[in-house]
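Q: Could you write out the predicted structure for this multi-component system? I'm mainly interested in how the pieces pack against one another.
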Amino acid sequence: MPKISVTVDGVTNEDDVEPRQLLVHYLRETLGKTGTLVGCDTSNCGACTVHLDGKAVKSCTVLAVQADGSDVLTIEGLAKDGVLHPMQQAFHEKHALQCGYCTPGMIMASIDFVNTNGKSDPTEQEVREGIEGNLCRCTGYQNIVAAVQYAAKTMSSTGA
Amino acid sequence: MTAVDDHPAHEVGQARPRREDQHLITGHSTFVDNMQLAGMLHLAFVRSSMAHAKITNIDVSEAQGRPGVHAVYTGKDFAEVQGNLPCAWPVTPDMVNPGYPSLAIDQVNHVGEAVAVIAARTKAAAEDAAEAVLVDYEPLPVILDMEEALAEGAPLVHANTTSNKSYTWAFDSGQAGSGGNVDDAFSGAEVKIKRRFIQQRLIPSFMEPRSYVVQPEGEGLTLWSATQIPHILRIMLSLTLGLPEHKVRVIAPDVGGGFGGKITVTPEEVITALVARKLGKPCKFTESRSESLVSAHHGRDQIQDITMSATKDGTITGLDVELTANMGAYLSLVGPGVPVLGAFMFPAIYKIPAYRFTCHGVFTTTTKTDAYRGAGRPEATYAIERIMDEMAAELGVDPLELRRKNWIKHEEFPYTTVAGLTYDSGNYEAATDKALELMGWDALKADRDKRRADKSTKQLGLGISTFTEMCGLAPSRVLGSLDYGAGGWETSSVRMLPTGKVEVVTGISPHGQGHETSFAQIVSDQLGVPYDDIEIIHGDTASAPRGLDTYGSRSLTVGGIAVVKAVDKVVAKARKIAAHLLEASEDDLDFAGGKFGVKGTDKGLMIQEIAFAAFMAHDLPEGMEPSLDSEATFDPENFSFPHGTHLAAVEIDTDTGQVELLKYCCVDDIGNQINPLLVQGQVHGGLAQGIAQALFEEAVYDADGNLTTGTFVDYTLPSSADLPSFITGSTYTPATSNPLGVKGVGEAGTIASTPAIINAVVDALRQYGVNDIHMPATPERVWRAIHSGFGDTQPAAEQTTAHTEGTSNSDRSGS
Ligand code: FES
Ligand code: FES
């Protein structure tokens, strides 16, 4: 079995992994990072979204071996010293989650969207198109869009 | 009428962000698949690739020898409980139930039916071994079309029945005495139209796949389940498996959405329990998405034949509904009752003097159907709201005017409908007027007419849907009269702890609705203790032992009221203790803001002080039991009836058939609102699901009975880019059947939006001679409807039939 070295949420791990193991299963089963969830078999839902070297990826489309030498950030590494990331705070304040199953992936995708988009005031349409790879069955997206717009403001002012 | 804005209390009515969020946004959720128990085995199922076949042989030898495999079982291994998955709603005494095995034994009846199960050390090992199980099938005829299934001489889905019909359930207002006779209404009617509407099959598609973990424990077990119904499940498991109920514990931790889709007892749940008990080891099963789509229950799937008569001036005189409802291959927990619930909602908000309803439940070789958001009521609302538009078109009147003419007026409540329900309160005028204004209806109409006159390739269609629904499932005696297999009450206990904090136990079991927040808001006001001092306990039969769970918008309307009743009892007991300690008479005590004050003095005691005194029990009134707690059960005298008006504006590109939802506005009246933020969230999510039925979603089978929409690639859930932002508003007509005046909001958006959208689409297409479009209104269907000769002009009246399906591959209706 190949050996990989991956830094996840600031901790470096060395593990033997099956060549076929997906990153999401490595995170969940080997590392016990249960914040990253699985919602589909086809890379459609985005529930498994994490940051790989700073970019959002669906961790069900990445093999664990492909993450060798990389830096992975999951929802569990987002809050620092108990302080929520502005995107987490925005999801809470704007009621952008109901069952919460899509939420970790949605938050990770949304942060990447804001970073890539680079504006403190993305339009509704930009946000809608920016996060369309992540499905939510509960919220109808309206409050998620509002949360992303709200967080974009805070993120640009705090540099988060 | 009390507007929620006028509510004097502090917490109720506030748009408080949820206390549930913290662990979910930081990734510390307790979804079942996150569970790891020492020595736990993982299960994988072998599923049928055939829609209908005899099983001639199952060879498990190769699978058994695989590394990590502990056991392989087929249906025969669980003979003692096979055939027994529960159906708790025998809607008629002669309903045919062929039995439902958790694992198929001799025959499979739909693609995806489980035929064998593997228990292995890892999920991957179990899945690998499942691939190695060889099943020999001898094909039987595939039966997909409900009408063909009912035809004389049709092949049978189940060998142990004599027809594919499970039941016929009927209601006739003439016979029931709630209205006139439909045949009389129809004979000599001035206008009579008949339409066929199709409720396509949908898949609830909660985002969390179903997941179960079972820990066997002596005679019993603990089950962690992604379920909406831990309490009902406990009873059902106990009865199905023959386990002592008090040794069965069911825990519904975080549950990632349900929408009715997690309201059954599933084969996978039962098998996980059986395997865990057989092996004496904890076992886990988590389905993949494709397993979920093919084997978790589906929703809707009805053929609706509906006839309506009216006078020339637009007064509706009679309504006849004949439904054919697809049960799929098996009767699921409440599946047969879903169309029956709808029976009460076809008359909707209208004064209809004569009504007849007949429903046939039919077996086909497809996945079973059961509740999906709204369960029966969206289907009914769709048909009635569509035919109101068609009747308006026949009569040449504005669809809104036809509704106004026929709806129950505000001053006419309470109103008993032709279906026998008594609507306690409502104000359809207010909701409609507000919606029209918020939408900017008149300007949109002008725009629509201009585009029509200009023959623009971007046509505008405007759609209306008014609706009411029956929420708060209870009252128990009414459910009993419908042969529903449970009561409709709910229970709660409220415990004041010595330090003044409060624990509230409820029998409802949320899965994203935010009850911990809204219930704490209610208790805070009623008990006068700070919101943060209140804990809501639910979803575990050990800590919340009694209840009837969450579905049908019953959590607040029934469960919330049980909480209020329990609080009332706590306050009553506290008042006695306060009177004793303050040496005052109970009548001389005021209770406000958590303080019992002696009238006319500044003497008083806080309820927290009384809780402490009740705990210490050093000085209580003669004969009083220590501790300040109480339990209450609430069984309402009536359902609640939220209502609303929804308006849609769609733009149709006549060159491509693309339908774009330009603007959507709804005004829902759900009575008083506990937390408007949560209400808004429920409405948004409901709208997305209803709109998706109109425009995106459909479960499709090919001729061999394979589900061709078996992944999220093919089963189109709307994404953020597919939906607009919605304009939402509220009016407030409190329910009179419960002390909070609440009506329930979980289904409202879903129920009303589907017909609003399709009415808008048909409004745009009517100029091309089109008077119906099958759902979902895909670009192809819309384009064909415009361009390929469908939608020939229908007769102006008398038995006209819609047949403007836009696709040539036709549908199960045979129209
Ligand atoms: S689980 Fe990765 S996209 Fe669905
Ligand atoms: S909050 Fe439930 S799926 Fe998004």
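A: Regarding packing and overall arrangement: Chain B touches chain A through 56 residues (CB under 8 Å).
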